[in-house]
Amino acid sequence: MPDPRFLHRLSDVPAAAWDALHDGRNPFLSHAFLAGLEEHGCLRPEWGWRPRHFTLWDGETLVAAIPGYLKDNSHGEFVFDHAWAHAYAQYGLDYFPKWLGAVPYSPVTGPRVLARTKEDRGALLGLLAGDVARLGWSSAHINFHPADEDPAFSPDWLLREDIQFQWHNPGGWQHFDAFLGAMDHKHRKNIRQERAKLARSGVTYRIVHGDEATDGDLRAMHGFYLQTFAEYGNSPALTLPFLQHLARTMPRALVIFLAMRDGAPVAGALCLRGADTLYGRYWGGATLPGLHFETCYYQGIEYCLREGLTRFEPGAQGEHKLARGFLPHTVRSRHWIAEPAFAEALAAWCAQERAETARYRQVLAAHSPFKADAA
After folding, report:
1. Which SUPFAM superfamilies match (predicted)?
2. H or E element that contains 158
3. What is the dihedral of CA 69, 73, 74, 75, to 10 degrees?
4. DSSP secondary structure letters along 89-155
5. What is the mean pLDDT of the chain?
């Protein structure tokens, strides 16, 4: 009989056992990344993140798992359920704590229900809902799961959808000019002008992987990250020791784009690289026209073209990405609600939200910067 367990530390699972449950194509699912968040001060109970990884065991063999957290708020999730929490409060019910299956601070689609067989995957989700109800938690949520995990979810797991802007190479672009050539004249001209203006200001780029980054590079990138969070009045979660940990344990997955001027870094973008995808995560830098677009978007596209990567996901939100070649793509999440009356009401709410999201995607698609036969 399979044995389900909530684990309070990922270090309680050997890295090899955890990583045997996924194919290694998505760096955010790796034991090194998730355990590193815990070990280097990025997850704190006072910020609402308490590790509760849900696992399934056959004796002492790990057969399925979901990276999970007990949450006392909805910060850092990128799937907004503040209205749900407010509705619970209006009826005198506690929405928190809730359980969340996700990668902290990372709105990145990837495997969530990790298992060796589809039977273990389905069993894991059924046992999860039962344990959440038994423990008195309001709900269970699994954010940014891929569509191919849909069959594992029973109908009482509500589906939500949202839009992200992503760059995909349809297969024919070998260099940046070919990418621009697929665009209409207006957008192609605007991008060339943006890039030329920044180049005239004397900005150049260094691109370093984790095993190439000096301690100064990592400190500079972390400083830019802190700067951005300070400018927006948010609390930074990632620590310098965590970046140093990634550089050691995931040396080719960590990619840093450093903008240089007069021999010193003036901006940086921190990315992770998967098997076929570049994931843009954080950026910071000086106030120079075009610096953000070049550092966060154009340098990443050039990297993908040079390295043979077919996708670039630069992060959540941002309609301004559309004009720069990032088209709308649907992302997904699932939600199990313990209270039947709320589950019924939220099912109708989710259906309406999905319809609105589909309409929004159609509107965005009509404003594609690409020629009709190009992408």
Report:
1. Acyl-CoA N-acyltransferases (Nat)
2. strand 157-168
3. -90
4. HHTT----SEEEES-TT-------SEESSHHHHHHHHHHHHHHHHHTT-SEEEEES--GGGGGGS-T
5. 96
Let me know: does 144 contact 109? Beta carbons within 8 Å: yes
Q: What amino acid is encoded at 187 in this protein? A: H
What does the alpha-carbon distance between residue 178 and residue 205 come to, in Å, rounded to a whole number? Answer: 21
User: Which residue reads 């690409």 in tokens?
Assistant: 370
Distance between CA atoms of residues 114 and 50, nearest Å: 20
Do the Cβ atoms of 140 and 98 come closer than 8 Å? yes
Over its C-alpha atoms, the chain yields an Rg (Å, rounded) of: 21
Question: For residues 340 and 129, what is the distance between their CA atoms, to the nearest angstrom?
Answer: 13
Quote the pTM value: 0.96
> Cα–Cα–Cα angle for 240, 37, 12, nearest 5°?
135
What is the mean pLDDT of the segment spanning 118-139? 96
Residue 244: partners with Cβ closer than 8 Å, 6 or more residues away: 215, 218
